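Lecture 7 notes: from sequence to structure.

We start with a single chain of 365 residues. Read the sequence below before looking at the structure.
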Amino acid sequence: MKRIALTAAAAALAGGIGFAGSASADTELVVVSWGGAYSASQQNAYHEPYMKANPGVKIVNDDSANEAVAKMRAMAEAGNVTWDLVDAVAADAIRLCDEGLAMPIDHDKVLAPAPDGTPASKDFGDLIVSECFIPQIVYSTTFGYRTDMVKKTPTSVCDVFDIEGIPGKRSLEKNPINNLEWALICDGVDPANVYEVLGTPAGVDQALAKLDTIKDHVVWWTKGAQTPQLLADGEVVIGSTYNGRLFSVIEEEKQPVAMLWDWQVFDLDGWVVPAGTKNADAVMKYLHFATDTQRLADQAKYISYGPARKSSAPLVGKHATLGIDMAPHMPTDPNNAKTTLLYNYEFWADNRDDIDERFQAWLLQ
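Now the structure, written as tokens:
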């Protein structure tokens, strides 16, 4: 069961903080995110402007978001919470909230309204999937491929499983999420029924059996920056990662890489505040700034993720340095979203631990 009521500390913060003015001097906030191009976009859009306006605040980046659930559990058990703000995918945010490891937020009291006065809760709308979650972006996990190394141009996600047609190494994330969905789709399961099938032991077996067909050709990644580097170095011919990372290697680094949007998986990413942070007041002030309409639109100047606020979308324009229109590079662009799978965060929040155990055992076989 989710905790519905605000904790006393969160309620006091939500109701009593005045957001004008600087945070207290010499405040250091440890902000945990994903590294690479994504953390760089946050640094440019949120962190630097906030530190400039609040000279007493120093934001320290930690790139451990892929380990957030395990580390936050360990910190809570040890009674020593050293993180102040954590970037998390929606399913992990739900788990952290359910376990009491993330602080519930009164979105309309803590966060800025839209420029026209629309409350934050309505501006974010259905993307607030947990009382502890503050959405930032809509992104997708999809594939990039080396245009000069593939034997044939991939047109379907199932080409990833075609070793004969596209020989060479491929990179996949070292966890079951997305890999099992793609495996089932490419084994003939109707995409509309993927999570129903995956919810059974036989469905997990079926997905792992499909992955077995390429297992010997896979380089496993744990951080989003790895696949773009593997592609740039020519160590893999095709690999999955976040669409914004692929945008960076294609448009900014001008590598011979192209996007494969087929059955991209839409997901949400946002902030959670660790329960027990020693800097809760400063974190809430930072969140009020970093999640407002302009800041979320500003992030889209640096990376091709869709801002989570409705009011931010019309403000998305050109890339800050390349000068190119960012709209066609968004995963939600109609030309890119012909076949999409909406990541089922409720399914993974309920089943992640069990399926993780199965997946890790399969990796060792």
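The CA atoms of residues 53 and 97 lie 31 Å apart. Keep this in mind for problem set 3.
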